[in-house]
Amino acid sequence: MLGERWAVKCKVHIRRTSHALACPEAHSIDAPRGGGIPRQDVSLWFGEEREAREAMESERSRSVDVSKSGHPDRTSYVTMGIKGVDSLLDGKGVPKGSSVLLLGAPGSGKTIFSLQFLQSGVAAGENGVYLSMDEDPERLLANAKQMGVDLAKPVKEGKIAIVDASPIRLLPAKIKLGGAEVGGHEFALSTMISSLVDAVKKVGATRLVIDPISTLIVHFSDEYTRRIAFLDLIAAANKTKCTTIFVDELNDAQLQRPHVFEEFLTQGVIVMSKILAGSTFTRVFSIEKMRGIAHDTQPHPYRITEHGIEVFSSEQIF
Ligand SMILES: Nc1ncnc2c1ncn2[C@@H]1O[C@H](COP(=O)(O)OP(=O)(O)O)[C@@H](O)[C@H]1O
Ligand SMILES: [Mg+2]
Predict the structure, then answer these.
(1) Is the CB of 304 under 6 A from ligand 1?
(2) Does 18 have pLDDT greater than 60?
(3) CB 148, CB 82: distance < 8 Å
(4) The predicted structure's pLDDT at residue 295
(5) What percent of the chain has pLDDT over 90?
(6) Where along the chain do its domains lie?
């Protein structure tokens, strides 16, 4: 499972809009890092007209349906398995099948948190998929091990799959397909989605992490296309029925968060930040939103130790 690279050599069917003015053409292409990669079918969308785009967004928003996004099961819960966190979630965890946005600055511990979530899943009989957008799997696992999260065994046993989606950063904005030019990032998104769906099937995963979505989303040139990209991603994650963590970068200095759209579409929002208390920084953990469970909304201090993340749920931030 380790280091399974997502496809960059694909058979591509092009549809001009979601409303299938379809002129399906099939091309084989070699993206920059081609070679040794499974052949897959990918559908691309690259509509131009504003009306088509708006219809598309509304269609996709409906298909994601905010009230039903994810497949939260109101009767069963998934413990997060991070010290101090489940007690903030009524002792139960998050509703099974939920999607949770995990926001934090670089270095706040989002990756280690997400890997602990997968590790505790294995202990509870739930397999997991981690889609790594930034780091290659070897380095990721080595860093995690240093922080007390050793995933070598579950990876070897096929209980956790690490999908390396880091080459996404290297794709050019445009890719030539026969005579046509298509958006490289739409291509990357489609490919990434099919890779994650394959990995979920392969390991029978019920937990999924995409870390971080910003690596993908920032490549889209405007707010509109970024939203479409996130809608596609969340719709794909919902389809897998996995309990999903979407990791996203948050700058501590940002007073106004630019994540309103993503926060609206996910059942849960967790923020890992830090505040300056006197002359020292304190790390602060808060569950800002979690549909389907009575939860503590207060900020609590947390630490990153050699045993991973520990949230001090009975301590307050003053
Ligand atoms: N052995 C360690 N003990 C304690 N903290 C560590 C250790 N190794 C790394 N860290 C902390 O963990 C942080 C990295 O965590 P990570 O999950 O990669 O953050 P993020 O994904 O939010 O960027 C580093 O900023 C560092 O503060
Ligand atoms: Mg990280």
Answers:
(1) yes
(2) no
(3) no
(4) 96
(5) 52
(6) 69-311
Of 286, 196, 185, which Cα lies nearest the Cα of 234?
196
Q: Which of 114, 150, 304, 310 to mutate to test the pocket of ligand 1 (most atoms within 8 A of CB)?
A: 304
Ligand 1 atom, smallest distance to 115 CA: 17
Query: What is the reported pLDDT for 38?
Result: 31
CATH architecture of 69-311: 3-Layer(aba) Sandwich (3.40)
Query: What beta strand segments (E) does the chain contain?
Result: 4-5, 9-15, 26-30, 40-45, 73-78, 94-96, 99-104, 127-132, 160-164, 174-177, 180-183, 205-211, 243-249, 268-277, 280-290, 300-305, 308-311
Task: Tell which atom from ligand 1 comes closest to the C-alpha of 106.
Answer: 23
pLDDT at 298 over 80: yes
**How crowded is residue 146: how many other Cβ atoms within 10 Å of its Cβ?**
11
* C-alpha 182 – ligand 1 centre gap (Å): 38
Spatial CA neighbour of 236 closest among 39, 71, 31, 37: 71
SS3 call for 274: strand
**Is the dihedral angle over the CA atoms 103, 106, 112, 115 positive or is it negative?**
positive
Alpha carbons 117 and 71: distance in angstroms, whole number: 18
Q: Are strands 73-78 and 94-96 parallel, antiparallel or unpaired?
A: antiparallel
* Other beta carbons less than 10 A from residue 81's beta carbon: 18
